[in-house]
Design a protein that fits this description.
alpha/beta; globular; 14 helices; D-Maltodextrin-Binding Protein, domain 2; 2 domains
């Protein structure tokens, strides 16, 4: 009897261990605050939503240290490429999907825990990046400054090529900024495509009057401060000023884009498991909802209700934005822009 009891207890212990191991593998019944170590995040997000998201992650995983390195999308993707033999970062959080697509050979495939809640159009087919917030591009304007200059609120990209806007447009160097590159491609796709849209871009560039900015954040900040009448920026940046009656934005009537910001697991990440936790978190309902309600970032998940007053994407005229063309031709597109700027 004693021998039988011992055998039963041994079998029970083995079964318990097998169950616990199985639970850890599938991610159930785990104390999510027990993970430890570090995760290194490269991010091009604005300071407000970036810090809010990181703080939420740290509350959920208090034993994981989060190191954040910020910069422009182009700068950070270039850094990831340069560090490819000995990666420092684990996650790239932010940057338009077209920019991430151009650097996807430096990312590792990962199907996140929230995969079923995300529309396939917002995911790289092989799991090399995941869209986490669609970003319509807008023209942001300072109404008081426009009225002081006896101008009108522009309604399209085309309006910005008219002579009265010369020197009054805030735009960032597209080689520095993923969002500025997306804006450049959006204007190209709306006005002839990447082969035939360069006459339009030349007219637009001439109207910048040599005043090209080095940071995309400055495009909305310097419109808000009264340095420029209008600026090219993304919807979420413009929404930060929704309570200011002198500031507003329009979706260009000749077609805008809604390229998603993405998140990606860096190939050979030093802290891969924590990187996966971070990606799962930023695509979770709790993070997506907070980022939308507090920071105006559109959720990629359809199970989150849009804030009142925000137009559904179906109501906004968008161009057919070709990720593959924008990615495969990025170096050529940037060179053509630089050639225009040099002449």
């Amino acid at each position: 009897m004693k021998r039988c009891l011992t055998a039963i207890l041994s079998a029970s212990i083995i079964l318990f261990c097998m169950t616990a191991c199985s639970d850890r593998q599938i991610g159930t019944n785990i104390d999510k605050g027990s993970e430890e170590g570090t995760v290194v995040v490269y991010s091009s997000h604005d300071e407000g939503p970036l810090n809010a998201g990181v703080d939420m992650f740290k509350k959920k995983y208090p034993n994981i240290k989060v190191d954040v390195v910020t910069g422009g999308t182009g700068e950070l993707c270039g850094r990831i490429a340069n560090e490819a033999d000995e990666p420092i970062a684990d996650v790239m959080w932010g940057g338009g999907a077209d920019s991430l697509e151009a650097f996807k050979k430096y990312f590792a495939p990962y199907v996140c825990a929230n995969d079923k809640a995300i529309d396939p159009k917002y995911k790289e087919p092989n799991g090399l990046w995941i869209g986490e917030s669609p970003l319509p591009m807008v023209i942001f304007y300072n109404k008081k400054l426009i009225e002081d200059n006896s101008l009108y609120i522009p309604q399209s990209w085309s309006d910005l090529t008219k002579p009265e806007w010369k020197g009054k447009i805030a735009y960032c160097l597209p080689s520095n900024s993923g969002s500025a590159y997306t804006q450049l491609c959006t204007m190209l796709f709306a006005h002839g495509g990447i082969e035939n849209g360069w006459d339009f871009i030349k007219q637009f560039y001439d109207n910048l009057d040599g005043k090209i900015l080095d940071s995309s954040d400055k495009c909305h900040e310097m419109v808000a401060s009264g340095d420029f009448c209008v600026g090219l920026t993304f919807e979420k940046a413009a929404l930060q000023y929704k309570d200011d009656p002198n500031l507003g934005f329009i979706y260009p009537k000749d077609g805008t884009s809604a390229v998603p910001d993405g998140v990606a697991l860096i190939k050979n990440a030093p802290h891969e498991e924590n990187a996966k936790l971070f990606i799962d978190f930023v695509t979770s309902r709790e993070c997506q909802e907070e980022q939308h309600l507090d920071w105006g970032r559109r959720p990629v998940r359809p199970d989150i209700k849009l804030d009142d007053g925000l137009a559904p994407l179906s109501d906004i005229l968008t161009v057919e934005y070709d990720f593959e063309q924008a990615s495969d031709n990025k170096d050529d597109i940037l060179k053509k822009f630089d050639d225009i700027a040099a002449n």
